[in-house]
Backbone:
């Protein structure tokens, strides 16, 4: 017990510092909506500034050095907001997150360039007397740190609750207009929170350095992961909960150290490293799994993502570039050849980021960790078990694909920034527990990881003996991987990935399994990272696991965003900037650490983000298009234009299986609010049933419950004979139940044709694999073609939804919902925003759906003219309850309905006309 208390008290120091750092993260998030991944890097800079000014030529007193260091940290926050983030207010969240990663990289590389990577012991700044409490020793510095953290929590809590500026910050977390209403400019508020957030990071960094030691690498990650975990525990909102989170983490880490021998014995390992680093990660994971949601709520705003390339393969250009590179490989030698090899391997890694983050929208900060595991498995099979390269690589890549699936599990319950935090924690934990543990990596002395002779189809390709052969292998593998990723982009499977990245709710409503897509994207990305890891790791005589550290993963995202996250070529361009790659060879000597190129890489990223957030590949594409428009280019032979989407000549009439929909006793509650209360409803094939009622009556919630977006508290939904109440959204959709959305929820990144395709794609498990190799060119199905013709969208197929008028966008949403020929269609306010002529056209199309296609249609609509002219029956809701049901005439005549919703009889009759 004494030991337990002793270790718990020891942990309070680090815990208090984590809480301070996390407070900065929370404050910045509340004030500017950005999660600052550079918080640990700002803390590190302050710790170095304090250390530097206390000694040597400065020799300042501690209070002065401390104050200056905290000021510097605050200034970094302020400058970053004013010079960078201010200009990215309307950018995609991933772009703003990438900017904070850029700041992290710049600060880390800058300090590393100056100080190197060695760890510095920092003497204690705070008085360190010991008090005795029974047998337990209580260090004074721990108590002071705890006092500072508790005091700061109270100050921040009080300020945000009771002062005008604090209220403005609280309002900013909700929405920017509220901030403006309180008389604050959102930009000034963001600048203030970034300054204070930076100063808090600085304070924490200086105070925690004596406890952890100081390096420009591990220090940043330890404090960043812990601070983000504590902030996550506080929901990026509550200061008291964040304090609690920080303290729990600090104490937890310390207690794990106490029990680590027992844990090692329990796991049956010879050595155990970094187990205490697993604590924040496990905490993050548990919080996310408990709090996470399988699908985002209706209120979730889809995040804009960087633009996507087309995935078209330009065979001639590819042949010329690959041929030239092959010649260069043969011509190069020494350092240049090594850099070229590294660039090619890094490009394979970046392709994994393009698939995972660019196509599927899942931000992972652990791709190099995954690749490192691929190198580890393969190296052990080759080096220790003596396996030939190909089977070893197949097993290595297969194993990391399985691990990639495990990495995907947190992504099933969360998304966006939270996912980035989890993967950062996971990557760091594996780095500390696996890559630093000789039990797993093999002892260098016994040669377990030594790469002996490697051969491929009878040719020796050992990189140390034949570097040019290994480089050629890297080139061939990169080309193959690039072709696969381009195929994926153009395929049905690629469309599923993009649908999920753009709008998970809409994807699920079209029968796309969001879970399956995320697992697939993680698996493919892990496979690519595994291949990259083998190419990178096996190019030396022994695998250097340092290459696969968390910074490499962070850098990979930075490079991919710089190159162009949505473009296959973006991965290759980004790889030029990898540490040790061709760009760094140009700017650094062969002995350099890669810090300068990393530093420049960070700066280039910020410049790119400020000028074109879609990356260099997109800029190049635009320049190319501009050149092609020049008159002198018209004389040159042009490439075949991209094939226009084809419509099927066949027309379908009739759904696959006419099926009635029935809802009995449906009740939905949101906390204390009963939004839907015992609703009964039936829609037969060939019938249009209207669901009307005043705003907030519960109409959309009925559709949400029928389609599986919300779970009912009571009631039953049946489709034909089947009770589908417990089914997932995607399964209901595959069963023939489709919906449109009040807020459209189109896939804005892909063309109208691709949107319609996404609604009609038939998916089989085989296509997940075959699409990587033969994506094929599929015309729109007869049913989708019929929808296109019915809604007169033939001329819009090649446009992006954003290029169309609001009315036409609405029609795209409905056409997408009916493209697969569903048995039941639920339309949520389809006429909102349409003019009279468009409304009349829509009424015809809805009748056609029911009469010609024999679909069962439920129509939620406020346009009474449309409802009265199209519906066979109408159900009226008020405050979640059915108050009337009957034919349009019966409803128009019902006094209860007129009182609640329709108004005077004259108005109703007028509307019906
Ligand atoms: N996720 C949610 N959390 C809490 N309350 C909710 C949620 N979604 C809906 N509600 C509430 O449920 C009630 C019904 O809302 P719903 O959007 O279904 O009404 P509606 O009839 O479709 O309204 P409108 O015609 O304005 O679209 C409202 O009081 C709404 O505030």
Residues:
């Amino acid at each position: 017990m004494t030991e337990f208390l002793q270790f718990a008290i020891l942990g309070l120091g680090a815990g208090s510092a984590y809480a301070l750092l996390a407070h900065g993260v929370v404050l910045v998030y509340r004030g500017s909506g950005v999660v600052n991944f550079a918080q640990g890097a700002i803390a590190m800079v302050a710790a170095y500034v304090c250390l530097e000014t206390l000694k040597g030529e400065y020799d300042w007193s501690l209070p002065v050095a401390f104050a200056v260091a905290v000021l510097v940290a605050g200034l970094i926050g302020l400058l970053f907001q004013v010079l960078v983030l201010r200009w990215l207010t309307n950018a995609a969240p991933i772009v703003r997150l990438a900017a904070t990663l850029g700041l992290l990289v710049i600060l880390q590389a800058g300090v590393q360039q100056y100080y190197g990577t060695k760890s510095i012991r920092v003497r204690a700044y705070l008085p360190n007397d010991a008090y005795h409490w029974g047998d337990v020793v209580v260090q004074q510095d721990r108590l002071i740190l705890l006092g500072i953290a508790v005091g700061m929590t109270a100050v921040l809590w009080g300020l945000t609750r009771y002062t005008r500026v604090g209220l403005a910050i609280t309002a900013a977390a909700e929405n920017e207009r509220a901030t403006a209403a309180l008389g604050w400019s959102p930009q000034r508020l963001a600048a203030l929170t970034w300054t204070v957030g930076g100063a808090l990071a600085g304070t924490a960094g200086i105070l925690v350095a004596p406890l952890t030691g100081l390096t420009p690498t591990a220090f940043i990650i330890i404090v960043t992961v812990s601070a983000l975990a504590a902030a996550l525990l506080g929901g990026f909102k509550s200061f008291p909960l964040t304090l609690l989170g920080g303290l729990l983490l600090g104490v937890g880490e310390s207690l794990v150290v106490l029990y680590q021998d027992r844990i090692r014995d329990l796991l049956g390992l010879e050595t155990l490293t970094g187990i205490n680093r697993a604590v924040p990660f496990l905490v993050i994971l548990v919080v996310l799994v408990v709090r996470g949601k399988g699908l985002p709520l209706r209120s979730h705003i889809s995040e804009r993502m960087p633009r996507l390339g087309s995935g078209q393969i330009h065979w001639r250009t590819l042949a010329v570039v690959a041929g030239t590179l092959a010649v260069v490989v043969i011509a190069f030698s020494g350092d240049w050849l090594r850099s070229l090899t590294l660039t090619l391997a890094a490009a394979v890694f970046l392709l994994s980021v393009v698939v995972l983050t660019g196509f599927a929208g899942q931000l992972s900060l652990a791709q190099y960790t995954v690749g490192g595991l691929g190198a580890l498995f393969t190296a052990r099979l080759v080096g220790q078990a003596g396996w030939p390269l190909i089977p070893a690589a197949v097993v290595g890549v297969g194993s990391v694909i399985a691990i990639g699936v495990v990495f995907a599990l947190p992504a099933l319950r969360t998304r966006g920034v939270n996912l980035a935090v989890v993967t950062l924690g996971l990557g760091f934990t594996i780095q500390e527990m696996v890559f630093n543990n000789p039990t797993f990596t093999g002892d260098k002395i016994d040669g377990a990881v030594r790469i002996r002779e490697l051969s491929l189809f009878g040719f020796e390709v050992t990189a140390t003996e034949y570097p040019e052969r290994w480089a050629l292998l890297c080139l061939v593998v990169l080309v193959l991987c690039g072709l696969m990723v381009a195929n994926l982009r153009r395929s049905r499977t690629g469309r599923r990935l993009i649908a999920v990245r753009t709008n998970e709710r809409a994807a699920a409503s079209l029968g796309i399994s969001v879970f399956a897509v995320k697992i697939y994207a993680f698996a493919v990305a892990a496979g690519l990272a595994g291949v990259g890891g083998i190419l990178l790791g096996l190019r030396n005589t022994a695998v250097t696991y340092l290459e696969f550290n968390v910074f490499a993963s962070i850098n990979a995202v930075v490079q991919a965003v710089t190159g162009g996250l949505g473009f296959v070529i973006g991965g290759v361009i980004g790889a030029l900037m990898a540490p040790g790659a061709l760009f760094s060879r140009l700017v650094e000597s062969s002995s350099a650490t890669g810090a300068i190129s990393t530093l420049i890489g960070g700066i280039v990223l910020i410049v790119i983000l400020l000028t074109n957030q879609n990356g260099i590949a997109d800029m190049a594409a635009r320049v190319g298009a501009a050149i092609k428009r020049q008159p002198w280019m018209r004389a040159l032979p042009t490439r075949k234009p991209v094939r226009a989407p084809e419509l099927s000549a066949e027309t379908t009439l009739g759904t696959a299986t006419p099926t009635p929909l029935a809802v009995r006793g449906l009740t939905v509650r949101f906390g204390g609010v009963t939004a839907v209360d015992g609703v009964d409803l039936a829609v037969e094939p060939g019938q249009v049933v209207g669901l009307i009622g005043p705003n907030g009556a519960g109409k959309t919630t009925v559709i949400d419950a029928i389609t599986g977006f919300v779970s009912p508290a009571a009631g039953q939904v049946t489709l034909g004979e089947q009770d589908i109440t417990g089914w997932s959204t995607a399964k209901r959709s595959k069963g023939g139940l489709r919906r449109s959305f009040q807020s459209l929820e189109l896939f804005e990144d892909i063309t109208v044709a691709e949107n319609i395709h996404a609604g009609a794609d038939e998916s089989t498990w085989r296509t997940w694999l075959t699409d990587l190799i033969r994506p094929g060119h599929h015309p729109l199905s007869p049913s989708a073609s019929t929808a296109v013709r019915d809604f007169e969208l033939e001329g819009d197929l090649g446009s992006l939804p954003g290029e169309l008028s609001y009315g036409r966008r609405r029609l795209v949403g409905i056409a997408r919902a009916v493209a697969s020929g569903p048995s039941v269609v639920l339309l949520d306010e389809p006429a909102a925003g349409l003019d009279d002529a468009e409304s009349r056209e829509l009424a015809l199309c809805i009748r056609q759906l029911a009469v010609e296609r024999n679909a069962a249609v439920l129509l939620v609509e406020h346009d009474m003219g449309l409802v009265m002219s199209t519906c066979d029956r109408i159900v009226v809701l008020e405050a979640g309850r059915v108050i009337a049901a009957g034919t349009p005439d019966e409803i128009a005549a019902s006094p209860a309905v007129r009182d609640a919703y329709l108004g005077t009889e004259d108005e109703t009759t007028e509307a019906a006309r």
